Amino acid sequence: MPFYFIGLGLNNEKDISINGLEAIKKCDIVYLENYTSILNCKKEDLEKFYGKKIILARRSLVEADDNEVIENAKSKNVAFLVAGDPLVATTHIDLFLRAKKEGIKCHVIHNASIVSAVGITGLQVYKFGKTTSIPLENENVEAPYDVLKENLKLGLHTLFLLDLNPEEEKFISVNDAIRYLLKVELKKNERVFSEKTLCLGCARIGGENQVIKAGAAKDLLKQNFGKLVHCLIVPGKLHFMEEEALKIYSM
Predict the structure, then answer these.
(1) How far apart are CA 251 and CA 239, in angstroms?
(2) Is it the case that residue 31 has pLDDT exceeding 90?
(3) Could you confirm whether domain 115-246 is CATH 1.10.3720.10?
(4) For residue 210, what pLDDT is reported?
(5) Angle 9-170-119 (CA atoms, 0-180°, nearest 5)?
(6) Which secondary-structure segment (H or E) carries 10?
(7) How confident is the model at residue 66 (pLDDT cuts 50, 70, 90)?
(8) Alpha-carbon distances of 116 from 10, 92, 122, 140, 153, rounded to whole Å
(9) Fold identical between 2-112 and 115-246?
(10) 31-35, 57-61, 109-113, 115-119: which has the minimum mean pLDDT?
(11) Is the pTM of this model over 0.85?
């Protein structure tokens, strides 16, 4: 039986590809990953458009050793839906590999991801360095800051993916991310990130109500970026075309 990993894109129920929609209609069970990102629509909107009941898949369900998703995929047509692209998050690659080891036939149907959609900022996608995430619990976490430090040494842009917990309605905002970097900078007493650092605060990229603002960190701290999902970009060395593009979003 096929096990489909299907990307839903970045905005709403209509961003799915035709191949993805046709695959869902063949499935007996449809799961929606519910912990790395969310769309700008409700589960009920997806169910109505796809014509299928959807089961929300929490992290504990997807990463469990005794895995319900894989067990069902052994005997039924199963779809695993992911906002963005299905294999950008490492947790989904793990599920894919575990299914393959069980002899399950897997099909991946790709879609737009934040990793490519950041091109809307005018920054050249191939000039991004290592992507990193800022977790909700980050009191003693310095890894994202260290990634920024290494990327900047190479003149590369840094994309910060910001953690969220939909069940508890918690998420890291652009403002939270900037405060986190300033806090670590103060602790380490280095010259990597300051209130004057050029940043791009982004919210709901790919949606009709997307927000992109470029400016000094201290100025972005004064902005309200609204609802999920947010990300923060710290540019590295800018090409003149990138500088020109950023003027569109400058405050």
Answers:
(1) 20
(2) yes
(3) no
(4) 96
(5) 35
(6) none
(7) confident
(8) 11, 18, 11, 30, 23
(9) no
(10) 57-61
(11) yes
SS3 (DSSP) at 147: helix
Question: Where exactly are the structural domains of the chain?
Answer: 2-112, 115-246
Q: Which residue in this structure is represented by tokens 């990597």?
A: 192
Q: In this predicted structure, what is the pLDDT of residue 168?
A: 85
Q: Looking at residue 159, what is its pLDDT?
A: 98
Q: Percent of the chain beyond pLDDT 70?
A: 100
Q: What is the four-CA torsion angle of 14, 17, 18, 22, rounded to 10 degrees?
A: -90
Cβ-based neighbours of 12, under 8 Å, separated by 6 or more: 39, 40, 41, 45, 207
Cα gap 39→206, rounded to integer Å: 10
- Output the six-digit token pair for 242: 């990138």
Q: Token digits for 200?
A: 């791009």
In CATH, which superfamily holds the domain spanning 2-112? Tetrapyrrole methylase, N-terminal domain (3.40.1010.10)
Instruction: Give the single-character DSSP code of 168.
Output: G
Q: Is residue 180 over pLDDT 90? A: yes
Tell me: pLDDT of 68 over 90: yes
Confidence (pLDDT) at 212: 98
Angstrom distances, CA of residue 70 to CA of 17, 66, 93, 100, 147: 24, 9, 13, 10, 34
**CA 144 to CA 135: how far, in whole Å?**
9
The alpha carbon torsion through 84, 87, 93, 95 (nearest 10 deg) reads 50
Question: Which tokens sit at 160?
Answer: 């910060």
